[in-house]
Amino acid sequence: MPRISDETRARRRTHILTSAWRCFALNGFQATSMDDVIAATGMSSSAVYRYFRSKDEIIDATTDEGLTRVRDDFARMATEHPVPSPTKALASVIGRLRKLAADPADDMTRIAMQTWAEALRRPALHDRARALHNQALDHLTALAARWLDNGHLAPGANPRDTAATFFTVMQGVIVYHHLVEDLSLDELLHGLSALGRAVAPESADAGTSPNKPLAAKG
Question: What is the pLDDT of residues 121-160, one digit of tens each?
């Protein structure tokens, strides 16, 4: 039997993943079986199982791929010259999310929401996703540090806090899109500007300290 090249192996693996993503985007992780994935690939079951031994392995690889793309996007922005402003960075992220959501059958943002839920069910996936999220946050923090250096942020602003808030907004846009409606960039910018003027750490009330996390970290 002729030896399969690394390029062919990588291409087949990618084909299996993209086929699985279409199944996941349409029907979710739990309602998608390995037989569904195999049928979508058009490959034999033995060929698919040669690359992935279970659906969980495909979900793990899907998490890696999705979060690696997010991480690399932030890494690229953090090294661009000139540095993109916070508004341009947010516009870039919103534009990418809109592009991903254009076709429900290929919508990685639907898979992102499923991954968050699946990570609560499987501790190993939670740890995997958390590590990749933190890598993305590191790059986003580097970008926020450049915003501070270039005067886009007020003196004394904390780059890590800024990065965490930016990341949270990005995830919130995904949830809002799927569960409520689309939020335009202008609406988001106006809302963030209004909140930025109204919210300050010393204004926190209702018995919640501004330095206290929402819940204990696992």
Answer: 999 999 999 999 999 999 999 999 999 999 999 999 999 9
Pick the range with the lowest mean pLDDT from 38-52, 88-102, 137-151: 88-102
CA distance 214 to 126: 18
Q: Is 117 exposed, middle or buried (0-12, 13-18, 19+ CB in 10 A)?
A: exposed
Q: Which are the contacts of 175, defined by CB distance < 8 A and separation ≥ 6?
A: 113
Q: Which domains does the chain have, with CATH numbers?
A: 60-198 (1.10.357)
| Six token digits for residue 198 | 């109204």
Distance from C-alpha of 43 to C-alpha of 21, rounded to nearest angstrom: 16
Q: What tokens does 129 get?
A: 């996703």
